[in-house]
């Protein structure tokens, strides 16, 4: 059957030919992603606060 052969071949590929990252490498990469996410979140918060405090308030003041 084609489906059974596909599953067997896929399992063989994952166990023999795939290079899995080491635990230390995985932790390092996770830390990089977490720090980059935090920096991006802070940057977006700053831009949103700036836009909300100055631009929107200025527009509302002009419309009064």
Which secondary structure elements does this structure contain, and how are they paired or packed?
Elements: H1 2-17, H2 23-63
Organism: Moheibacter stercoris
Transmembrane segments: 31-56
Subcellular location: Cell membrane; Membrane
Features:
single chain; mainly alpha; 64 residues; elongated; 0% strand
The chain-level structural class is: mainly alpha
Helix content: over 70%
CA-CA gap between termini: 74 Å
Order of helices and strands: HH
Outline the low-pLDDT stretches: none
Portion in strands: under 5%
Strand tally:
0
Query: How would the global form be characterised?
Result: elongated
C-alpha Rg (nearest Å): 25 Å
Total helical segments:
2
Average pLDDT works out at 92
Largest sheet: none
Structure, described:
This protein has a domain at 21-64. 89% of the residues lie in helices and 0% in strands. The protein has helices spanning 2-17, 23-63.
Summarize this structure briefly:
This protein has a domain at 21-64. It contains two helices and no strands. It has helices spanning 2-17, 23-63.
């Amino acid at each position: 059957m084609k489906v059974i052969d596909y599953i067997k071949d896929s399992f063989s590929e994952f166990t023999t030919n795939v290079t899995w990252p080491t635990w230390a490498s995985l932790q390092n990469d996770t830390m990089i992603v977490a720090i980059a996410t935090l920096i991006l979140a802070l940057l977006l918060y700053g831009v949103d606060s700036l836009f909300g405090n100055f631009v929107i308030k200025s527009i509302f003041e002009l419309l009064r």
